[in-house]
Amino acid sequence: MKYLIFGKGYIAHKFKDFLGEKAVISDVRIEDYSAILEELKKQQPDVVINCAGKTGKPNVDWCEDNKMETIFSNVVAPIILARACENLGIYMTHVGSGCVYEGDNEGNGYSENDEPNFDGSFYSRTKAWSEDMLKEFPVLQLRLRMPFDSEPGERNFITKITKYPKVISVPNSISVIEDFLKASVKLMGKRATGIFNMTNPGTIDHKEILDMYKEIVDPLYKYELFSVEEMERITKARRSNCGLSSKKLEDEGIKMRPIHEAIRDSLKRYKENLDRQRKV
């Protein structure tokens, strides 16, 4: 099985590291249809994984000021890649986002059949638009949320959140990267298509995470909570806070660890990796 990955960011490299020699990260930008066709013919992959897109740096507020670039990367480019894959009969996987909902659907979590109900940021709107278009085609769409990783890094949710002077504390669904990668590859092996919530079962709030972080990683760490309303007074875009259902994934026979268990295990390894980095 050969995988061709488009995009050179955090998730693209996570897939590459997980898949090893079976995967190649392409240098081709997916905005260029002719270049994509040539790349697909040259590489002859069994699976294409699209990890390209704009999330904004340092956060999604960037997308509010760069709307044309965001919509081209998040909406137009995936359609161009899907067209090339369809032309050559190649199976395509697209890494999308679960940040298209608000709330937890009265405790049930939003399923893949529920219409997105959050439009508070331009980033989230582009993700909902691309999702809606791609579902017309035989594409596997992976809804990723707040990627949580045992490797310290600027795109890792725990690394980011511990640098904020103040944080909100709202229950959310989260994707623990180790589980996300395993589940994603299993779905690709099944040639699954359609949308899947790729989050660990259950929800967890920021306070629970940071208390675990203090217990496991840094006993001297301190944080301060503030309200969503206070946060929204200092951000350009609202943030999606939501709970997603993992039932569809489980119906495929693929189970991710419960969120609290997965976060605790990841934090233990996060500390080990952090200590190792400090010794180098």
Structural description of this entry:
The chain is of the alpha/beta class. It has helices spanning 10-19, 33-43, 61-65, 67-88, 122-134, 157-161, 177-189, 206-216, 228-232, 247-251, 259-279, and strands at 3-6, 23-25, 47-50, 91-97, 139-144, 166-167, 194-197, 224-225. The chain has a six-stranded parallel sheet with strand order 2-1-3-4-5-7, sandwiched between helices. It has a two-stranded parallel ribbon with strand order 6-8. Helix 4 packs parallel to helix 5. The mean pLDDT is 95.
User: What is the CATH domain class?
Assistant: Alpha Beta
User: Order of helices and strands, N to C?
Assistant: EHEHEHHEHEHEHEHEHHH
Classification by helices and strands? alpha/beta
Can you name the CATH architecture?
3-Layer(aba) Sandwich
Full CATH superfamily name: NAD(P)-binding Rossmann-like Domain
- Give the helix level as a range of percent: 40-55%
Estimated share of beta-strand residues:
5-15%
Query: Structurally, how many domains make up the residues?
Result: 1
Number of strands: 8
Largest β sheet strand count, sense and barrel closure = 6 strands, parallel
Widest beta sheet: strand line-up: 2-1-3-4-5-7
Overall 3D form = globular
Distance between the termini: 36 Å
| Mean pLDDT across all amino acids | 95
Tally of DSSP helical segments: 11
The gyration radius over C-alpha positions equals 18 Å
| Topology-level CATH name | Rossmann fold
Uncertain spans:
none
